[in-house]
Design goal:
The structure is a single chain. This protein is an alpha/beta fold. The protein folds into 2 domains: 1-34; 38-255, SGNH hydrolase (Rossmann fold), CATH 3.40.50.1110. Helix content is 39%, strand content 15%. The protein is built from 10 helices and 8 strands. The strands form 2 sheets. Strands 1-3-2-4-5-6 form a 6-stranded mixed β-sheet. Strands 7-8 form a two-stranded antiparallel sheet. A hairpin with a 2-residue loop joins strand 7 and strand 8 (222-226). Helix 4 packs across helix 10 (240-248) and helix 7 (148-164) packs parallel to helix 8. The protein is globular and about 45 Å long. The termini are far apart. The model is unreliable at 1-37 and 43-48 (pLDDT under 50).
Length: 259
């Protein structure tokens, strides 16, 4: 790599070729980094004993708000059991969406690579959709709003693909996001969609089980908002305490053999 990337002394006749080499070197170094957003935490070498994939956006990825996102804390809880070896893979991407590409491929597009093709994967926790609601009218001012029906249909596709691969798939309810600092990210109409989606996720026969993150982190005095001590400060992302609450909301019995 070093020999290939070494640049000749620029001259008037070599400047164009030199600029091409710089660009090629940058791409060669950047491409491996693009594949590193998926991190495994838990027991080294335990992938053959069962992998749990935490599949989501920045609320799962966690960096920038906590050094220990909820998948890492879930791995710690599973280690403490000592009854079985489990690895937890953090497949969260900041800004990711269920339906559309943007900050990384959409959840629908990357599900094969990040979940189904992962060696040892037996369970997946899905927490995706909040950016699908928030981006239209804020990050993407002219984009049409996303409906509950569109999100539910996407979940159904993920469920079918997981079941075809012999995996269990657990649905995480979408977290409150009223008060987010990005203008237009939250509206009362989007909150209505979130509530409709969460009602469907909680319906028996949808996912194999429900992880009710919303119930664990919402402010009971004002349910469209996060609890203040779980709020990372922007009313969307989570504090370290919020990530702990998410990990503690997960029933470890979901990852038993035969579960």
């Amino acid at each position: 790599m070093r020999r290939w990337c070494r640049m000749p002394t620029p001259t008037s006749s070599r400047r164009f070729r030199a600029s091409v080499v710089v660009l090629a070197c940058a791409l060669a170094l950047a491409v491996p980094l693009l594949g590193r957003y998926v991190r495994a935490v838990g027991l080294p070498g335990s992938s053959t004993f069962g992998v749990v994939v935490a599949f989501g956006d920045s609320l799962t990825e966690g960096k920038g708000y906590t050094d220990e996102p909820w998948p890492e804390l879930l791995a710690r809880r599973l280690r403490a059991q000592r009854a079985s070896a489990r690895t937890v893979v953090n497949a969260g991407i900041g800004g990711n969406r269920l339906l559309r590409d943007g900050m990384g491929p959409s959840a629908l597009d990357r599900f094969e690579h990040d979940v189904l093709a992962r060696r040892g994967a037996r369970w997946v926790i899905v927490l995706e959709g909040i950016n699908d609601l928030g981006f239209p009218g804020s990050v993407e001012p002219g984009a049409p709003p996303v409906t509950a029906e569109q999100l539910i249909e996407a979940y159904r596709r993920l469920i079918a693909r997981a079941h075809a691969a012999g995996m269990k798939i657990y649905g995480g309810t979408l977290l409150p996001f009223e008060g987010t600092k990005s203008p237009g990210y939250f509206t009362v109409e989007k909150e209505a969609v979130r509530q409709a989606v969460n009602a469907w996720i909680r319906t028996p026969g949808s996912f194999d089980a429900v992880i009710d993150f919303d119930a664990a982190l919402r402010d009971p005095r004002h349910p469209p908002r996060l609890l203040p001590d779980h709020d990372g400060g922007d009313h969307l992302h989570l504090s370290a305490r919020g990530h702990r609450a998410m990990a503690e909301a997960i029933d470890l019995g979901l990852f038993r053999d035969g579960g």
